[in-house]
Amino acid sequence: MKTHIKNRSLNEITEYALAKGQPAFRAKQLFEWIWKKQAESFGEMTNLPLSFREALEADFWVNTLETADEQVSADGTRKFVFALADGQKIESVLIPSDGRITACISTQVGCALGCRFCATGSMGFVRDMDFTEIHDQIIRLMKLSAARYQTTLDNIVVMGMGEPLLNFDNTITALDRISDKTTLNFSPQRITISTAGIVPAIIRMADKNLPYHLAISLHSANEAKRKQMMPVAQKYPLPMLTDALKHYHAKTGNRITIEYILFGGLNDAPEDAAALAQFCRSFPVKINLIQYNATSLGTFGSSTAADSKKFVQFLENKNIIVNLRKSKGADILAACGQLVKNSNLKPDIS
Ligand code: SF4
């Protein structure tokens, strides 16, 4: 039965090469193709003998993702549906902005956290992606960035389907392989891991002093409202989250990004801005406010331009760094909270 070559160490591949009558240096060449040259098939590995490539093809996969669908937004955002080896599907997004390409990647099939504004949450949890699938996804998106936008990938945000910190080891292993100096040397400063607030894993990130940026999907600094929008807040309420973020900042010195989708009449009033400013007093932050597209996802409404502006001004008057962004790719259900395993499936938000 075929297995994934990315699960094999250099020693194991060397043993395999020797068993196939190849010199040991073939294993090093193969390793370079896999980890450095972004190969997605053995056929591309043209400096390996054909007989060795055929043997590898019979025994291993090098990338298990099938691109099942691709949609393009009017704003240039592209959403991809990838089928995994067991037929499960995940979605990933390439977002062009200011001459840069950002990939939004998935780490789980579905999600257990059930945030009430999120289509993925409405699917429930299916399974974790393993590190090879996450790595395969990033390599595919790097190639798609070059093919569709004629430029290299600039940033990776781990904000697609799933809660990455509930699939900690697979996510970090994949990111470490991408950013390792001996492989693709992708700067960890250009990678952001976004969490709904899994407190023990934030502490773990801090204690491991991981080099990636941390973003918190907060969406409300009012405890009751946050619990209403994000059931995970029942388990990890705001005081616990605050303590974890203080610890994270003390250990890493990093600024924390706060993601906050503005929902009209729910979390966009002056008192919500005041609660947010209060929450942000304990550590340095940058706040990304995201304007919600009410036409695409049912029950939650958009914040008006006037209310959004007042919200921004309140925070700026407190000398907090704030960016107000439009959610991109909404017309193809590629925007924040819209990823769902079947791109034809309309999100079911209750
Ligand atoms: S917003 Fe993120 S954490 Fe919440 S349900 Fe959706 S995928 Fe899961």
Looking at this protein, list some descriptive labels:
single chain; 350 residues; alpha/beta; DNA polymerase, domain 1; TIM Barrel; 11-stranded mixed sheet; two-stranded parallel sheet; 15 strands; elongated; disordered C terminus; binds iron/sulfur cluster
Polypeptide structure, described:
The protein is of the alpha/beta class. Strand 4 and strand 5 (89-97) form a beta hairpin. 45% of the residues are buried. The chain has helices at residues 10-19, 25-35, 50-59, 119-123, 131-149, 168-179, 199-207, 223-229, 232-235, 238-252, 270-279, 305-317, and strands at 3-4, 60-61, 66-72, 78-83, 89-97, 100-104, 108-110, 125-128, 155-158, 191-195, 213-217, 256-264, 285-291, 301-302, 321-326. Helix 1 (10-19) packs across helix 2. It is built from 12 helices and 15 strands. It has 2 domains: 3-61, DNA polymerase, domain 1 (Orthogonal Bundle), CATH 1.10.150.530; 66-332, TIM Barrel, CATH 3.20.20.70. The longest helix has 19 residues, at 131-149. The strands form 3 sheets. Strands 3, 4, 5, 6, 9, 10, 11, 12, 13, 14 and 15 form an 11-stranded mixed β-sheet that branches. Strands 1-2 form a two-stranded parallel ribbon. Bound molecules: iron/sulfur cluster (SF4). Iron/sulfur cluster is lined by residues 111, 113-115, 118, 120-121, 161-163, 196, 217, 337.
